[in-house]
Amino acid sequence: MKIIAADVIVTSPDRNFVTLKLTTDDGLTGLGDATLNGRELSVVAYLREHVVPLLIGIDAHRIEDTWQFLYRSAYWRRGPVTMAAIAAVDVALWDIKAKAAGMPLYQLLGGASRTGLLAYGHASGKSNEELFDSVREHQEQGYRAIRVQTGVPGLKSIYGIASNATFEANTGVRYDHEPAQRGARPAEEDWDTRSYLRHVPTVFEAVRNEFGPELPLLHDGHHRMTPIQAAKLGKSLEPYDLFWLEDVTPAENPEALRLVRQHTTTPLAIGEIFNTVWDYQQIIREQLIDYVRSAVTHTGGITHLKKILDYASQYQIKSGMHGPTDISPVGMAAAMHLGLAIHNFGIQEYMRHGDKTNAVFQQSFTWTDGMLHPGDKPGIGVDLDVDEAGRYPYETAYLPYNRLADGTVHDW
Ligand SMILES: [Mg+2]
């Protein structure tokens, strides 16, 4: 079962996606997601110029060996571009192997450990009234766990608040939340940590008063706080019993979480911009987090993320895989198969893709009573319509960035 073709497909149905398609000499195909939001073409170049030529002629069954070859032979290891490229190859090979076996991928990963995956969606609003409407809308869509992001008085635009205007102007597609914007330069947002720290606990108090104690609530700090600010937020949110508080401090310095952990019992999640098990080594060993936020797409694929999650399981740390709309349907399917199979599944982030995206990527997952299931088609259960993909060429898009009131660039 040798690889005879490796095609990198770039398409922008509602947003940019990069997909690797591998074909074997016995006619099987496999898909892998290589989308790196705002830096998509760097992974395209890495794949086309450096990886694809190495894949032709290799045995598609040798998944672990191919992973180690691509990781170690580069010498320049890790990093989001490299690890997204390796992830795409890895998932495409798992897709092929599962099709060859005639099984859905989760069966090859050990079989189902549960009947479905609890998923959370993104509610947001500039005011509490808008936020409550958004929470109700998500409950009507079936969500049983909800991330809450809110506007902060005095700040114009802020991470996590659904931007209808952007999408109505560009595509007419309503995303729950999609920060990347098409255009030649990143949009500028503003930020004030003290205002944020004062405001957020009042919002969670209001949400608990409105929706009661049962609903699992999550919140994302998006790496903007110092350790002591993060500790203060975790403490001030304790009465509202969060499922998790995410990305409180910049991810480059994992040991910052030690101080946060000393001060609060609010569960912590981090890792969406981590790439390897080495990024997690200290914070898993010291039990500084409760949830691993990595996506299959950005962490070297199923082969490597499963190793991270197996390591985490020794410390009662669970999965909380990244799943916003810049994880393509291929990346989401891979996450669902892995999440169904592992024992230490926690929750899956799930935002709906738009109609154009769903026409490019035909999917077999199900969404029932707030639970995802990858379906039982052999492989990962996603097909890519190449003609449909060809209708939507790449468009330059950037994630926004932040400045403080005095003009200083701040973490976004
Ligand atoms: Mg996050």
Describe this structure in words.
- By secondary structure, the protein is α/β, with parallel strands linked by helices.
- The strands form 5 sheets. Strands 4, 5, 8, 9, 10, 11, 12, 13, 15 and 16 form a 10-stranded mixed beta sheet that branches.
- A hairpin with a 5-residue loop joins strand 1 and strand 2 (17-24).
- The termini are far apart.
- It is globular.
- The protein folds into 2 domains: 3-103, 2-Layer Sandwich (Enolase-like, domain 1), CATH 3.30.390; 117-378, TIM Barrel (Alpha-Beta Barrel).
- The longest helix is centred in the first third of the chain and has 22 residues, at 80-101.
- It has 14 helices and 20 strands.
- Mean pLDDT is 95; it is low at 164-174.
- Magnesium ion (MG) binds at residues 220, 222, 246-247, 272.
Which ions, cofactors or small ligands are bound in this entry?
A: magnesium ion
The total count of helices amounts to 14
Helical content class: 25-40%
Using only CA atoms, what is the Rg?
21 Å
Question: What spatial form do the alpha-carbon principal axes imply?
Answer: globular
Q: Return the CATH architecture of the largest domain.
A: Alpha-Beta Barrel
CATH topology descriptor of the largest domain: TIM Barrel
Number of domains: 2
Summed over residues and divided by their number, the pLDDT gives a mean of 95
Protein name: Mannonate dehydratase
Organism: Conyzicola nivalis
Keywords: Lyase
Pfam families: MR_MLE_C, MR_MLE_N
